[in-house]
UniProtKB/TrEMBL annotation:
GO terms for biological process: carbohydrate metabolic process. It is an enzyme of class 3 (hydrolase). The lineage of its organism: Bacteria, Bacillati, Actinomycetota, Actinomycetes, Micrococcales. The gene is pxpA. This is 5-oxoprolinase subunit A. It comes from Oerskovia douganii. Catalyzes the cleavage of 5-oxoproline to form L-glutamate coupled to the hydrolysis of ATP to ADP and inorganic phosphate. Keywords: ATP-binding, Hydrolase, Nucleotide-binding. Pfam families: LamB_YcsF (PF03746). Belongs to the LamB/PxpA family.
Length: 260
């Protein structure tokens, strides 16, 4: 069991929302909005459409949940989980386009986009892909240099964001397996996704309290966290997030949104 966190420890709790399309829904967005403090909203490139974006941003504003642009490769068929060798200038334009689209709906709902978090294959690529990391940072800096960039601790994108003067948010995953080097276990590999609410909640608490996660080989990996993510498409996501939030708050952690 994790040690108790330091008094006044604050953490954000986020999930990917709005990842349906037309009549198809991937997750229970309304239930998840009652649990998270920040919502990474799909902007139409890997999932989502204008009606869904409008509905999720409205629901987020009603609950005081921060709205984040969940930007991705232009890959609806692959749900944004396939690497795309897009030219840096094109990627920058694509990211600006997505932020702007979601920001329009956020403003109609009475708020604004408060951070940017890449999705899927783009998120993983810019851990090490310097050109694409720079392209994402260029997009955020051009659109609004006050927007925080959410990413993996130690990633190229967070390093470049800091160098550009952008705020950064270091993210950890309560429902994903970690490799010994601190990267995520690839999806489709045994142990890549965790499903037990008790295990996921205890994992989240140790990440927040100690900055430690147990990797797939049993070793301990040190990670620094400003935000904890539970994926909305993980089976039982509502139960997982409920357990995580209750455990964190019962341990004295203040759950607080990005940009608030």
């Amino acid at each position: 069991m994790a040690h108790l966190p330091a008094p006044g420890r604050r953490i954000d709790l986020n999930a990917d929302l709005g990842e349906g399309f037309g009549p198809w829904a991937l997750a229970d967005d309304d239930a998840l909005l009652d649990l998270v403090t920040s919502a990474n909203v799909a902007c139409g490139f890997h999932a989502g459409d204008p009606s869904i974006m409008r509905g999720v941003t409205r629901g987020a504003v009603e609950r005081g949940v921060s709205i984040g642009a969940h930007v991705a490769y232009r890959d609806l068929a692959g749900f944004g989980r396939r690497f795309v060798a897009v030219a840096p200038a094109e990627l920058t334009a694509d990211v600006v386009y997505q932020i702007g689209a979601l920001d329009a709906f956020a403003r109609l709902a009475g708020d604004r986009v408060r951070y940017v978090k890449p999705h899927g294959a783009l998120y993983n690529a810019i851990v090490r892909h310097e050109e694409q990391a720079a392209a994402v940072v260029d997009a955020v800096a051009a659109y609004d240099p006050t927007l925080p960039v959410v990413g993996m601790p130690g990633s190229a994108v967070l390093r470049r964001a800091r160098e550009a003067g952008l705020p950064v948010v270091r993210e950890v995953f309560a429902d994903r397996g970690y490799a010994p080097d601190g990267s995520l276990v690839p999806r489709g590999t045994p142990g890549a996704v965790l499903h037990d609410p008790v295990e996921v909640a205890e994992r989240a608490l140790r990440l927040v309290a100690e900055g430690i996660v147990v990797a797939a080989d049993g070793s301990e990996v040190t990670v620094e966290a400003d935000s904890v993510c539970v994926h909305s498409d993980t089976p039982g996501a509502v139960a997982l997030l409920t357990a995580v939030r209750r455990t964190l708050e019962a341990s004295g952690v203040v759950v607080q949104a990005i940009g608030r």
